[in-house]
């Protein structure tokens, strides 16, 4: 039941926030914060009390904790939740970033506070559902469901864009991109289910059953593409990234934090959990294409980031660049690279969240996100620029930060499989340094536009930023707890990739 | 006929009792109007009669399939259709009561028309012979002319009524001509016998022409592209309760008779026939969705959206095997519930009726701007309906869409499945636009609101109940699936 509660808590908390609005604006904020902290505590409790080593050969289940109930027997659909090291890390991340999102919008959101937190918490509830569901139908449901509150978050509390692009337009674009690609995944899921039905005569959406569906090569290829496109839109992979810069630029800070910190990770999670293990041979064959797309993403994101005037758009493009590394790591498929992907996902969640929170705080003070109107802020705001320097350093992958660990492991792990890809990708690191320093240069150094000092960081903001910095540095120096937790789950993925490699190798 | 002899008179009467009760209701309401005009009394009598018919229908389920004369058959499918038709009619009665309170002309006759149309729907879902098909369609459509033009001092309503009448007449002409051709070649009008004749000499050009004309006639009623041109105007102009009936009960009944035709009569095995139908399905979804994109009028938008939804439904008919019948059943249930929710809100916001001379209902989208901050629960209903129409998970609409895609994938009709996806993606744009309009907080022009006590009125309760059902069936669709599965099986 713990798993059910993990999903239900944000949903119930959201409803409470909505109703608590009648007791003033503070009530929903505290309730939302309490809800997310409760979620976090539950996950951490689970983390401490569980063992994430792979069970011995032949054990009944690879999951640490499992829960299931019949739901739609007509199609063998079950409410089937399970947790392993990977999902646990992701849910912990969700709880943490959820709490941060609540804190960082404490002063930013002043209108319709209750409804705002309802949407915020429901997104997080949906995300937790995505990380827990191992019935494909249920997974799809959560995958699509989390779009609705995100849509409202952008459309109702977003900022209107600089060049006439409206927040509603951005929200709609986000929704249509993800929903349409999601339907492709639904088709692929159904194709898989019917293939399984054809082979065994029974309907099932259970992950464990579908893993061993016999598929012809072409079918597997098409179904894999269906999954890949859905995840690629969300990751995002160039050329399916069109929604991301707009959505980030228009979203409120909390929306950006959730979007970059967690929603993008659902895509990587989906690839690790579903796309690779369900279609190992097809994925193996597709890996060169995916890695090339990852490379394109790294450079495309970095180059476009250099040319942005809007601070949040810039950070959004850097996300595309970082996700390129994630994609390469996933399709390299060695255990080292996969572990690197996990580390990089966590690290990117922190550094991107930090940067977005900072740009939200700048916006509260300057009422603009246009970098041409910034400059010379180092002397004008107490405290904030120092934190910016840390997150920028993390974003460019400076040793000592968690991002370095992740990127290094991805490159190291992928080198044996695709040396040239790694060689080219490492050139992308230089670009990362360029755009990161651009941020520092344009925003904080240079001649100030005005001399008047701006409000410094208050206690809430300082604690929040300190927390993230501490995590970035801690996991930069000592990433082992992360890696231990996800090791079992990654071994499973790696084994399926390895088997596929052996089989395709044998066929040749 | 030998079939009739198999059942006792009593069984037959019991099986057909819903229809009899509905007709009795018409007579009772008419007499009560003749005796004394009382709006509330008429509405209550109608509701009681329809409820009795619904109960009779549910009790009759134990009888199994009963042939009532050689032209009507009461089986699970027709009872399923009957439940949907009667439920939508009941919803329309409750909505109409509130709506018509503001109308200064005679109000009571609306219930007469509504109930007669419901009787037509009941005949139609039980039809197994061309005569009953024709009779049912006409009995369904004729009262609708009156209902659509009921508030005839509004130009919009009058236009809507006349348009529907003219196009219905055209459709009837097609229908009759088609039947005449079929009869000329085969000498029978019974669905099953026609089916046998068609499969024996399916390539006879006269037979094909007859079947084609028949389909065109039905396609008019279902507003399938290219016979959809009347839909937006009629939807926009008609009074709320009348449009609600048109969008739900009338379409369900016609679609079910089409399904029956496909099962028995039109089950052609040539590929080109399926390809042609598939093509029509594809353009119906695409045209419906594309034309809805630019609408600024909620009722027009819903009209176009209903075109698109019947495009999706056609997928099941094109496949016509495996899950197809179950899909039709599920989709119709979800469609009816969702449409009742959406049109219910429109009608509630437009209630009570206010004469304007133009279009009386609150149909321009800007009327709904910021509705959430004034009527949060009513807006929640509308939001749920829009999400369900768009097929978002945790609403009943998603289960419908899931079935449509499943039936397409099962039959490997990738083009159709692809078009459903494209259609849904386009559709999202306008559903989201409606949704976000409800939540925006900027001064709208000409606001109109539901009355403060909307939720305590029967209409309000029905709408809230419908929205709850949409959510519940989205969360736990098993009862609905079992029911429909049993009907289809």
UniProtKB/TrEMBL annotation, chain B:
UniProt family annotation: Belongs to the complex I subunit 2 family.
Protein's UniProt keywords contain Signal: no
Domain NADH:quinone oxidoreductase/Mrp antiporter transmembrane: 127-426
Gene designation: nuoN
Enzyme class per UniProt: translocase
Quaternary structure and interacting proteins, as annotated: NDH-1 is composed of 14 different subunits. Subunits NuoA, H, J, K, L, M, N constitute the membrane sector of the complex.
Protein name: NADH-quinone oxidoreductase subunit N
Location within or outside the cell: Cell membrane; Endomembrane system; Membrane
Physiological role: NDH-1 shuttles electrons from NADH, via FMN and iron-sulfur (Fe-S) centers, to quinones in the respiratory chain. The immediate electron acceptor for the enzyme in this species is believed to be ubiquinone. Couples the redox reaction to proton translocation (for every two electrons transferred, four hydrogen ions are translocated across the cytoplasmic membrane), and thus conserves the redox energy in a proton gradient.
E.C. designation(s): 7.1.1.-
Keywords recorded for this protein, A-Z: Cell membrane, Membrane, NAD, Quinone, Translocase, Transmembrane, Transmembrane helix, Transport, Ubiquinone
Membrane topology per record: Multi-pass membrane protein
Membrane-crossing segments per the record: 12-33, 40-60, 80-98, 110-127, 133-152, 164-186, 206-230, 242-262, 274-294, 301-323, 329-356, 377-406, 412-433, 454-476
Catalytic activity from the UniProt record: a quinone + NADH + 5 H(+)(in) = a quinol + NAD(+) + 4 H(+)(out)
InterPro entries per UniProt: NADH-Q_OxRdtase_suN/2, ND/Mrp_TM
